[in-house]
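Predict the 3D structure for this chain.
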Amino acid sequence: MGMGGAFVALSNDANALFYNPAGLADIKESQLSLAVIEIESDNGGYRFTDDALKVDFDNSKEVAQFLRGHIGDYGHVGASFFPNYSSPDFAFGLISAADSNLQVRDRQYPKLDADAIADEGVCTGFAHSFLDNNLLVGANLKYIFRQSLEHEYTISDMTTSGFKDRVRDDINHGSGLLLDLGMIYKIQGAQEGTDRGPLQLGISMNNLIGNKLGKAEDIDPHVDLGISKRIGKITLAADYVDIFHQEGEDQDVGKRIHLGLEYAATKILNLRTGIYQGYLTFGIGLNTKYLKIDMLTYSEEVGTYSGQQRDRRYMLSFGLGI
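Done. Predicted structure below.
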């Protein structure tokens, strides 16, 4: 995400299980990552949480003041845990992720819109190279158990006894086995022995089957295209995601273009920037054999088109591996 989310043609680690499984064939050595934790929030999510801790939710006046104080605010928080094992051509991981979005509407009769998803599951992928390692082909399977909530709550709802039980009743459950397929093709340059990497073209077809998760929110299928090139210490990447407009309800092109740049300042320090959904991203990564730390910021478009309503988010990722 520090590189604008552009990773379809660049996938070369365990994250290929989510971006392009063909990239598993580009992994150079085996690694076991025991603790990979990501935490993210926007400014609204922090304010929502901080203020909510001070509210007596049995007191309708305090709840009304709390909601009116956040009219028009958008709050997002998320966290994930992804222990995984990766080796040349193969990767396996455990998935645990959750995120929530809160928004308050209607100043006269405040209502809280809650949208939350929690996923648990496993994923595994395999890839192989052909044509002197210039063509990479891969596939992966993900089994996801999902809980999702999309509901609107009034002050009366929130101050009525048994509100927590009502929220539990509003949560929908579902599961599915999803299939991803991907390819990466490397166009080798004529400058043998230089520090220029090949031009890489990638295509990833995600959630082809199993994307209907019962009563829980479905996972949309999508087909993504990518291109990347390494020039010395600089890596450039660009993606066009969801080329058939299968995700969501809009068809805005600006939200589908991802651009990224990474500069390898040292052997362990990487600086990143990019454009995601029309907004700048920035990131810094520290990567050693046993420790990986990433800090980044990006903006998510929460409106219907790029440039309408951005939500600036901040993420910290921490991983331990052997």
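The chain has a mean pLDDT of 92.
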